[in-house]
Design goal:
This protein has helices at 4-20, 24-44, 48-72, 78-90, 95-100, 117-132, 157-168, 177-180, 187-201, 225-243, 263-268, 280-290, 302-308, 314-333, 350-359, 366-379; strands spanning 102-104, 146-150, 171-175, 205-210, 249-255, 271-274. The longest helix is centred in the N-terminal third of the chain and has 25 residues, at 48-72. The protein is built from 16 helices and six strands. Helix 14 crosses helix 15 (350-359).
Length: 382
């Protein structure tokens, strides 16, 4: 027989899982059941500190129930009704997609992305303005439905897609190949169709596919039937977005290997935007972003850091900042025993960055950059 604690844990897990999947009505039922069990535990637990923990957790779950109920009854205003609408259409997705596909309003703005001004400008023109002012984009000005972001890894393609969704206040579907593919015959292409159907009903929507080459690579004779059918279904859905007006759905694909994409897929992604390695100003801005809240010594010059980090991607610079910020902390850790009381950490100095730059090298070689530029000249926008 299950203990009261085990029963509470199971109810809590179900509630959180349903809440994340947007199935709020069902989540409320499980939250309430978990709250009742927590209240019982808070009265029967032998340890007073444990009783306090159970009571606090019960209060948190109860508060979440009230938030969800206000949304379901429409008391939360337009945002609550919007959440309900998305929740309803999400129920059409199979359970495996509800758990894996992330549907969220990303909290990423343009200011969180260093540099890439040209890419931001093109995305504003291709996605944000058409969604915010659809009446201006008619006839030959019809908006693009497929956008491909390509370039070296770690340069901000995923952040750009999230910033687009934030600017549009759109529902953001972060789709992976693992979420789409199924071992059952016919299920994978059905998942693709359902995904686009739900995105239309939750519009305005952005479907973001990271590493799109893993799902839509060149078709070959060695492919099994399921893979080919999934690619065909994606192509049909992308064509459907172009022929149906005012659907408010945009597909953004990101890839580090654009040359592996099938030619038919490249054609469906009408706008291809090159996301390059950061230039001097962008590198300086990225250092500034990742050193927020870090105390720097007077000898640290961001201009100098940007100058010596030529060839580094945004992700590489983030690692450099983390490595340099760890150096003052390591001085305490080398003593073996954590010091008592408050610890004063010295500012991060120039020597820390020199050491970090020696440890962390650029992940992208000049030959890789040349290959991206050649592909951009052939298919993309420079």
């Amino acid at each position: 027989m299950r203990s009261l604690y085990e029963e509470m844990l199971e109810e809590a897990r179900k509630a959180v899982s349903l809440d994340r999947a947007g199935r709020h009505k069902e989540a409320v039922e499980h939250y309430m059941r978990a709250t009742e069990l927590l209240i019982k535990l808070s009265k029967t637990a032998p340890d007073p500190s444990l009783r306090k923990v159970y009571a606090q957790k019960a209060e948190l779950y109860l508060k979440r129930c009230e938030e969800l109920r206000s949304g379901l009854t429409g008391e939360g205003g337009p945002r609550a009704r919007e959440t309900l609408g998305v929740e309803e259409v999400l129920k059409k997705l199979p359970p495996e997609l509800q758990g894996v596909v992330l549907v969220e309003k990303p909290g990423v703005g343009w200011d969180d992305i260093g540099g890439l001004e040209e890419a931001k400008k093109r995305l504003m023109e291709a996605v944000v303005w058409p969604m915010l002012k659809p009446e201006l984009f008619k006839g030959p000005r019809e908006p693009w439905r497929g956008i491909l972001l390509f370039g070296p890894p770690g340069c901000g393609k995923t952040l750009l897609a999230k910033a687009v969704a934030s600017q549009c206040e759109a529902t953001f579907f972060n789709v992976s190949a693992a979420a789409i593919m199924s071992k059952w015959l016919g299920e994978s292409e059905k998942n693709v169709s359902l995904l686009f159907d739900v995105a239309r009903k939750a519009a305005p929507s952005v479907i973001f596919m990271d590493e799109v080459d893993s799902l839509l690579s060149l078709r070959g004779l060695e492919e099994v039937g399921g893979e080919r059918r999934v690619k065909t279904q994606f192509l049909i859905e992308l064509d459907g977005l172009r022929t149906r007006e005012r659907e408010g759905v945009v597909v953004i694909g990101a890839t580090n290997r654009p040359w592996d994409l099938d030619p038919a897929v490249i054609r469906r992604f009408e706008r291809r935007i090159y996301v390059p390695l950061p230039d001097f100003e962008a590198r300086k801005e990225i250092f500034t972003i990742h050193l927020r809240g870090v105390e720097l010594a007077d000898d640290v010059d961001l201009d100098e850091l940007a100058e010596v980090s030529v060839g580094y991607s945004g992700a590489d610079i983030r690692l450099v900042c983390r490595e340099a910020a760890m150096e003052p902390l390591r001085e305490f850790m080398e003593k073996g025993v954590p010091p008592e009381g408050e610890v004063e950490i010295r500012p991060v100095c120039k020597a820390d960055f020199v050491k970090a730059l020696r440890k962390i090298k650029p992940a992208v070689s000049p030959s890789d950059v040349r290959r991206y530029v050649e592909w951009a000249e052939k298919y993309g926008e420079l």
